Amino acid sequence: MPSISRILLVANPDVDNTAAIRRAAAAARQHGASVTLAGLIDSPELLEGQLPASLSAREVSDTLARKCSDWLGTLRDNGPLKDIDCRLEVIAGRAFIEIIRTVAADSCDLVVKAADRRPGPSSFSSTDMHLMRKCPCPVWVIKQSLQRQFGVIVAALDRDQTMDSVSTLNLQILGYASALANAESSDLHIVHAWHLRHSATLESGHFGIDSRAMESATTAGAAEARAWLEATVARYRREHVDTSAGTFEPTIHVRVGDPRREVPGIARDLGAGLVVMGSVTRTDIRGMFMGITAEDILNQVESSVLTLKPPDFESPISLS
User: Fold this and answer.
1) What global pTM score does this model have?
2) Quick one: residue 30, left, alpha or beta (phi over 0 = left, psi -120 to 50 = alpha)?
3) What gap in Å lies between CA 200 and CA 275, rounded to an integer?
4) pLDDT of the residue at 286
């Protein structure tokens, strides 16, 4: 795992923050990092027009800020953060925007937060998805579980031979996943899903391709995908694994099928507690932050997730 010096831990009074606090504290100890424990409140601008006429939006926001600060202090002083270099910060405004601005202003290396309760069918809330799309540093969204450790960690790799940033991102994913697997004594599984592009059209008979040719193309493509995945893992082992710091003995899986179905499926089959994956691949077009594949996978996974972005990613959220 890359060196971490500053962690932003976002707490939410509406959910159980225990697991998020415990893992942020563990990461801080491992890396000698400082933690900013942040709480979110409505700014006066968000409160305008939402209160009885007798109440001042500024006074209400100030009261919320004092109560939030007291609550954050209780979280810090009565749990695993009490022996960590930890400061408190109350963030006012639209949640995901102000979290990202705090990350940029404080040069944070990692955001940790408990998953919000979600009102709809998607796996993560709007705020969580916005952070995974647009936050410049890795975002670790932790779902509550009775398990104190992740028994199984899945690292999902994507393949795009035309983009060096994707290769770098895959190595980063392996770095985070392997470090966490060692820290949590977890089984590490590395997953790639490959499918024959436009297979439905090819099978329609329009191009005169028979089933035997399709089967041959699928077999060859799957073999090439496995060779690529094994080469990527071998490169990571060669360039980044320090055997004195832990073991690296992953299980490799190549599934033939749509990644949007296969990656969540294998995570469920394995009982994964954490999926580590990229939430962005293309950064050449400003405004393209999360591909359909990544978004669909995140809307289906039942585990906690740690999402990363390529090194050349630029957030669309400005500091001002």
Assistant:
1) 0.89
2) alpha
3) 29
4) 37
| Contact by Cβ (8 Å): 99, 130 | no
pLDDT at res. 56: 85
pLDDT at position 313: 87
State the residue for tokens 């795009």: 160
Domain ranges across the chain: 1-114, 147-320
Q: Which CATH number fits domain 147-320: 3.30.160.670, 3.40.50.620, 3.20.20.70, 3.30.70.920?
A: 3.40.50.620
Determine the Cα–Cα distance for residues 279 and 307; give it in Å rounded to an integer. Answer: 6
CATH number (3.40.50.300, 3.10.180.10, 3.40.50.620, 3.40.50.1460) of 1-114 reads 3.40.50.620
Quick one: tokens of 179?
């470090």
Q: What's residue 120's pLDDT?
A: 55
- pLDDT of amino acid 25: 96
Q: Which residues of the chain have pLDDT under 70?
A: 1, 119-122, 145-147, 160-165, 196-211, 213-214, 243-245, 281-291, 320
Instruction: DSSP for the chain, please give it.
Output: -----EEEEEE-TTS--HHHHHHHHHHHHHHT-EEEEEEEE--HHHHTTSS-TTS-HHHHHHHHHHHHHHHHHHHHHTSTTTTS-EEEEEEESSHHHHHHHHHHHHT-SEEEEEPPP-SSSSSS-HHHHHHHHH-SS-EEEE---S-SS-SEEEEE----TT-HHHHHHHHHHHHHHHHHHHHHT-EEEEEEEE--TTHHHHHTTTT---HHHHHHHHHHHHHHHHHHHHHHHHHHHHHH--GGG----PEEEEEES-HHHHHHHHHHHHT-SEEEEES----SSTT--S-HHHHHHHTT--SEEEEE--TT---S----
pLDDT tens for residues 180-190? 999 889 999 99
